[in-house]
Design a protein that fits this description.
mainly beta; 2 helices
Length: 175
């Protein structure tokens, strides 16, 4: 094998290249009189058994889950207000997916932390889960559709370990 080919293969395989995934479209959440866009937000994924989950037609790369939903927190309950998607080319919504039930639908299947961005984006978190982090965030803990805790978080842009820190003046990556 030619030495140039060996060098080219080693460079392509052995050098770490930056990887950028398409940022996903966030679903709106109505909460305390405002519309916010959590990341991550609630999903319908756990409303169905693992082998019976709906397979939506992913229509665009920024919406790989294949549907758009609107959520609301009213009192201490998370509600699914609307859902639109396509399966095998046909439009589907809450009625089609949830045995004829209609909106609003209490999201009793969802447990997790919903993170509402409140400040400037700092970058992609380096520790723990892979997610974007902002200078201010509201963390809403939900257990089986019930809000159990709300925490206001503040992150120092100079002390938060992130990849691709954004330079506020040029909006270009500084790392």
């Amino acid at each position: 094998m030619n030495v140039n080919w060996v060098i080219a293969i080693v460079l392509l395989v052995g050098v770490p290249w930056p990887v950028h995934a398409t940022r996903q479209l966030r679903d709106p959440l109505l909460w305390k009189g405002e519309t916010v866009y959590p990341e991550p937000g609630p999903t319908i994924r756990d409303a169905f058994p693992k082998n019976g989950r709906p397979r939506f037609d992913a229509q665009i790369s920024i919406n790989q889950k294949g549907y758009r939903a609107t959520w609301e927190i009213k009192g201490d309950t998370l509600w699914l207000i609307s859902l639109e998607g396509k399966m095998e080319g046909k439009k589907v919504g809450i009625r089609e997916l949830f045995d004829g039930r209609s909106a609003p639908l209490a999201a009793t299947w969802f447990s997790g932390t919903v993170i509402v961005p409140r400040g400037e984006e700092i970058g992609l978190m380096k520790k723990g889960e892979l997610r974007y982090v902002w200078t201010k965030e509201t963390h809403i803990t939900v257990e089986k559709g019930k809000v159990t805790k709300v925490e206001e978080m503040v992150f120092d842009p100079d002390k938060t370990p992130v990849w691709g820190r954004r330079n506020r003046l040029t909006n270009r990556s500084t790392e």
